[in-house]
Amino acid sequence: MVDLLKQEMNRKNRLIFLAMAVFLVIVTILMAVIGEDTRTLDGYKLMNTFGGITPVIELLATIITATRFAGVDSNKQVRQNMERHSKITIFFSKVITCMVGYFILLALSVLTIIFMKYLVFPESAFAGKLALELQWATLGNIAYVFIFESFVIMVIGFCKTWYGAIAFGVVLNYITELIAGIFMIFIYNNRQLIWNPFNFFFVEKQIQDGMKHMMTRLTLNQIIAGSIVYAGIFFVIGFIIFVFIRKFKTDDELIAKRQAKKNKKQKLQTA
Question: Membrane-crossing residues (predicted)?
Answer without folding.
Answer: 15-34, 46-70, 91-116, 136-158, 165-188, 223-245
